[in-house]
Amino acid sequence: MSHQPRSPAPAWMRWALSVMAVAIAGLAVAVAIMVGDDGPPAAATAPTTIASVPSTTLQASTTIPPAATEAVYTVVGVSGLGRDILATTFGDGPTRVYVMVGIHGDERAAVDTGPLLVEHWLQGGVPEGVTIRYLANANPDGVVAATRVNGAGVDLNRSFPTDDFEPGGEHGEYPLSEPESAALFADIAAFAPDLIVTLHCEWNGPFANYDGPAERYAEAFAAAAGVIDSEWRVEPEVPYPTPGSLGTYYGKTLGIGVVTVEMSRLRTAAEHWPALRAGIDALLVLAAGA
Q1: DSSP states of the chain as a string?
Q2: Is the pLDDT of residue 55 over 50?
Q3: Are 244 and 166 in contact (CB under 8 A)?
Q4: Strand arrangement of the beta sheet that strand 84-90 belongs to
Q5: Rg of the Cα atoms in the chain
Q6: Where does the pLDDT of residue 60 fall: very low under 50, low under 70, confident under 90, or very high at 90 and above?
Q7: What is the pLDDT of residues 183-241, one digit of tens each?
Q8: Do 151 and 141 form a contact (C-beta atoms < 8 A)?
Q9: What is the 3-state secondary structure (H, E, C) of 263-275?
Q10: pLDDT confidence of 68, banded at 50, 70, 90?
Q11: Are the CB atoms for 226 and 232 separated by under 8 Å?
Q12: Which residue, 12, 199, 235, is CA-closest to 107?
């Protein structure tokens, strides 16, 4: 079948098509300007930290630095059942204080005090001269199960490489056998603290215990806390053996001061908080001047 040649488009149609071409070209230029010479923005990369960067940088020129708005957590390890172990840092002073909660998952008041401490430090409760490394939950599987031990049935506070470590049972087959205690050990080593503060609960609490060169810090804590709650006291020794404990390893083996804050199991974190905050503040102020 033959085809008849098409007649030229009318002049008005050719004019309309040229106007449309100019408009499309202009739109392309506008898009190129908005995107830039490098093309569309690259896809966002996965964050390496938990939460967002604080909006305010801590300033060293003031006694109490301005408060940040949010803590920035990093994953320092993973529990035996796959839960993240998180830590964050406050301040930038020369004295380094490591604070941790949750090594025993059934000590609920100690675990619940952690967020109160974080909020206090975010609001400006970090003295100039101190850097705080805070481990948010040393035994996440134990906290979820409300058990003293981790998911493998090991007491993480009997898992450290002390001279009196006793293998087997709740102590683990060898020192640092558990991923949680190994992560804690590595994070403390990386931070290189001058002082360690660990929060616990005890039936005969509240009191402050210490290992190594930390008596004056325990005394400062108990004195300040005792102004609000007269039951706070210092107990240099506990009436039971603690083979493989964190306090023995860091305090007695390595010579780093360790203050063990033993809250009462009969009270909540909120009930303890006013006195405990005063004690922590006094301890940190003393450390800042060390």
Answers
A1: ---PPPPPPPHHHHHHHHHHHHHHHHHHHHHHHHH-TT-SPPPPPPPSSBS---SSPPPTTSSSPPPPSS--BEEEEE-TTS-EEEEEEE---SEEEEEE--SSTT-HHHHHHHHHHHHHHHTT---TTEEEEEES-S-HHHHHHT-SS-TTS--GGG-S--TT---SGGG-SSTT-SHHHHHHHHHHHHH--SEEEEEEEETT--EEEEESS-HHHHHHHHHHHHHH-TT--B-SS-SS--TT-HHIIIIIIS--EEEEEEEETTS-HHHHHHHHHHHHHHHHHHHHT-
A2: no
A3: yes
A4: 74-78, 84-90, 130-135, 95-100, 195-202, 257-264, 207-211
A5: 29
A6: very low
A7: 999 999 999 999 999 999 999 999 999 999 999 999 999 999 999 999 999 999 988 89
A8: yes
A9: EECCCCHHHHHHH
A10: low
A11: yes
A12: 199
Token digits for 26? Answer: 């202009």
Supply 158's token pair.
Answer: 């009997």
In the block, tokens 């059942």 appear at 81
Q: For the chain, list the domains and their CATH numbers.
A: 74-288 (3.40.630.10)
